[in-house]
């Protein structure tokens, strides 16, 4: 036929279709989760009504997904030998793992200049029972403010590499494993000078870390595991997204990015390899019930992440207590939760109560969740009679007395509270010492119902760090301009990449009742003096010569200087690689202070709300040319762009170097407000620290310690009170 398909092409297409559909399954995975039997879903009368799943329906579903698993392992040539490595066995019982920002004030004390690992861990022990591993996060959202790459950020942590190594040893002393992130999108900052697999493996071996989280990665390639093995220091790799099934052989951890229907679905990776550990990640969710119930039913863990890029999404007391109980049971039952004979959604009697069955030798454990909003009591499970078998309610820490059903089978009755948990043990012998210890602990914990704990989520409030007033100058200070008293509409928004406009994002000014991204406040400002230009290298050198100032934490201090002096020709460039503390020390010596943010903006904007200091239209001549390379050539001289002057004549406000202003604190995080943007703009990713050239925008730098906070694209200017 003139318009027909040739017979050989038909054969090829049929073969392709056959290959695609060869793996028969009525329950093919949906991303990372395997669907559940339709009979578990409640149906309305117009759909024929609901009826409990029959044993045949359950067995058919289980047979289907077992068939899928067996065939899938063949298709990917699965080899699970990596899970047998002694160096990686810890992952199989690593159930609670927070992502911890290095800026968390429970982790590091910037006043005492020391890591406070015990304080951090003691807080988590007290609130929800502690953790098994920690993902230490030193990079995003600060990375990209200068050309330090992801590993330079680790090297910038207090104490440098020796300090980081000792900090990791402190975690290990408490039985907590340590992971760091890797960002394959980090291709715009300093080139590491070697392939990334080698760079990562070498640094992690040097500091003694245990694993790597693959940020934004759908699977960490095998090359990274091989590079780590070559150093003699194997690493556990944990991609953020779901890897190709083949990568399960070397990615022994993953995050779980789940959907949460009423009937809990089965994790695909845990089903393919029961020794695989998943940490469910759902960082913005304020109610953790879904996370914990899906984790408990799948025998996996949870990414108990609260400090999200400096935005605190704390665990409520009710969720904290549920976490304590779930983790207590999972840790004690860890050998059961890797059983290759795992039976998910094992039959239960009551609607909305779901269980997984975990056989191990002559014992069996069930992990159980109540998805209902109400308590469920009475008979919960029906089992075949088995001579000599004893049954234990592990959640309540008591032995159960079976009753016979009308069909001659055995019934077990126990209560499960609303959105609660249960666990059973069937054993021919008395529980061993570990299970007895678990039962004793759970009996104590379960005396108080979860409903007795508050489930109210609360925002963490912030305080602005006061800036003390200065003495007015006796005359007209050199290189300063007097800004007149006036009314000013202080309108500014944070440029954080994530967090939308949720409460808790950005900062909380003294006149606000909570932190938020958008701010608009009419103010009356008194007259003040402000530096016409940002503080230069030459000016900072005079300060050093006069005071012999040297910070206690001197890592990265004046990093681009050599032998106590700035590079030749840099005298009129803004000083950089100075922390907020360094800038304050200079200001105090000069009889000045750092500006309040609204003073900086008023001096830059005047009273007409303009977009840039020079007006509302972008003028490329008013700012330095952007540096989009992987090395920083340094800022321009402070007087190089006179077209950038503000209505008051203030210069060098935008586009050369960021400038320090306010500091905000809450219980867990410090943040410095930066104004003006910088000339340095690393390319290749949306995740680098964004720019804020517009006067209605500010940057927030999460602050840890001077060594981390200093930057090659961050300087300052000073003000002095006029009256």
From TrEMBL:
Signal peptide coordinates: 1-22
Q: Which residues form the Sulfatase-modifying factor enzyme-like domain?
A: 521-719
Q: Which Pfam families match?
A: FGE-sulfatase (PF03781)
- Judging by the UniProt lineage, the source's domain of life is Bacteria
**GO MF annotations, alphabetized:** formylglycine-generating oxidase activity
The record ties this protein, via InterPro entries, to: CTDL_fold (IPR016187), Sulfatase_Mod_Factor_Kinase (IPR051043), SUMF_dom (IPR005532), SUMF_sf (IPR042095)
Keyword annotations from UniProtKB, A to Z: Signal
The identity of this protein, by name, is Sulfatase-modifying factor enzyme-like domain-containing protein
Give the lineage: Bacteria, Pseudomonadati, Acidobacteriota, Terriglobia, Terriglobales
């Amino acid at each position: 036929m003139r318009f027909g398909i040739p017979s050989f092409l038909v054969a090829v297409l049929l073969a392709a279709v056959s290959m695609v559909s060869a793996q028969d399954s009525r329950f093919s995975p949906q991303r990372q989760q395997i669907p559940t039997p339709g009979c578990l879903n409640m149906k309305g009368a117009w759909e024929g009504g609901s009826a409990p799943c029959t044993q045949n329906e359950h067995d058919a579903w289980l047979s289907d997904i077992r068939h899928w698993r067996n065939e899938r392992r063949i298709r990917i040539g699965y080899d699970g030998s990596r899970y047998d490595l002694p160096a990686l066995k810890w992952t199989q019982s690593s159930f609670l793992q927070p992502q911890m920002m290095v800026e968390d004030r429970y982790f590091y004390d910037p006043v005492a200049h020391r890591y406070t690992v015990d304080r951090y861990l003691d807080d988590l022990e007290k609130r929800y029972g502690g953790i098994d591993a920690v993902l230490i996060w030193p990079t995003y959202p600060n990375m990209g403010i200068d050309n330090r790459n992801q590993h330079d950020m680790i090297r910038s942590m207090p104490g440098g590499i020796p300090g980081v190594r000792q900090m990791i040893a402190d975690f290990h002393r408490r039985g907590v494993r340590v992971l760091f992130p890797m960002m394959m999108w980090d291709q715009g900052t300093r080139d590491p000078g070697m392939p990334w697999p080698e760079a990562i493996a070498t640094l992690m071996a040097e500091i003694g870390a245990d694993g790597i989280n693959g940020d934004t990665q759908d699977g960490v390639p095998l090359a990274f595991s091989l590079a780590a093995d070559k150093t003699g220091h194997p690493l556990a790799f944990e991609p953020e997204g779901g890897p190709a099934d083949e990568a399960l052989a070397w990615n022994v951890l993953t995050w779980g990015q789940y959907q949460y229907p009423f009937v809990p679905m089965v994790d695909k990776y845990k089903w393919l390899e029961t020794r695989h550990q998943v940490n469910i990640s759902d960082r913005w969710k304020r109610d953790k019930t879904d996370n914990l119930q899906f984790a408990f039913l799948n025998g996996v863990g949870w990414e108990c992440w609260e400090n999200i890029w400096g935005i605190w999404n704390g665990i409520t007391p009710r969720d904290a207590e549920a976490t304590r109980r779930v983790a207590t049971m999972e840790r004690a039952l860890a050998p059961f939760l890797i059983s290759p004979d795992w039976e998910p959604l094992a039959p239960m009697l009551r609607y909305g109560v779901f269980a997984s069955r975990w056989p191990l030798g002559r014992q069996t454990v069930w992990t159980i969740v109540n998805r209902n909003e109400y308590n469920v009591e009475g008979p919960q499970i029906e089992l075949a009679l088995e001579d000599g078998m004893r049954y234990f309610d592990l959640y309540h820490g008591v032995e159960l007395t079976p009753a016979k059903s009308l069909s001659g089978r055995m019934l077990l009755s126990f209560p499960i509270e609303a959105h609660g948990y249960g666990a059973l043990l069937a054993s021919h012998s008395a529980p061993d010492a570990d299970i007895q210890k678990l039962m004793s602990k759970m009996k104590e914990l379960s005396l108080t119902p979860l409903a007795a704990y508050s489930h109210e989520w609360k925002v963490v409030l912030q305080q602005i760090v006061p800036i003390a007033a200065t003495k007015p100058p006796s005359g007209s200070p050199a290189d300063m301009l007097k800004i007149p008293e006036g009314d000013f509409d202080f309108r500014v928004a944070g440029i954080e990449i994530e967090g939308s406009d949720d409460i808790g994002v950005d900062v909380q000014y003294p006149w606000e009742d909570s932190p938020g991204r958008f701010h608009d406040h009419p103010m009356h400002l008194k007259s003040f003096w402000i530096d016409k230009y940002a503080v230069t290298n030459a000016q900072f050198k005079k300060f050093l010569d006069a005071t012999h100032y040297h910070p206690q934490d001197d890592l990265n201090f004046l990093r681009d200087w050599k032998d106590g002096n700035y590079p030749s020709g840099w005298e009129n460039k803004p000083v950089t690689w100075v922390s907020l503390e360094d800038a304050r020390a200079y200001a105090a010596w000069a009889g000045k202070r750092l500006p309040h943010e609204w003073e900086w903006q008023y001096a830059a904007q005047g009273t007409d709300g303009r977009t840039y200091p020079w007006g509302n239209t972008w003028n490329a001549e008013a700012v330095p040319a952007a540096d989009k390379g992987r090395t920083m050539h340094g800022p321009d001289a402070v007087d190089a762009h006179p077209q950038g002057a503000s209505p008051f004549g203030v210069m060098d406000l935008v586009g050369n170097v960021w400038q320090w202003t306010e500091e905000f604190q809450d219980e867990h995080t410090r943040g410095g407000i930066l104004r003006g943007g910088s000339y340095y703009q690393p390319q290749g990713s949306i995740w680098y620290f964004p720019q804020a050239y517009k006067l209605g925008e500010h940057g927030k730098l999460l602050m840890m310690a001077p060594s981390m906070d200093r930057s090659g694209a961050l300087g300052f200017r000073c003000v002095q009170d006029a009256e």
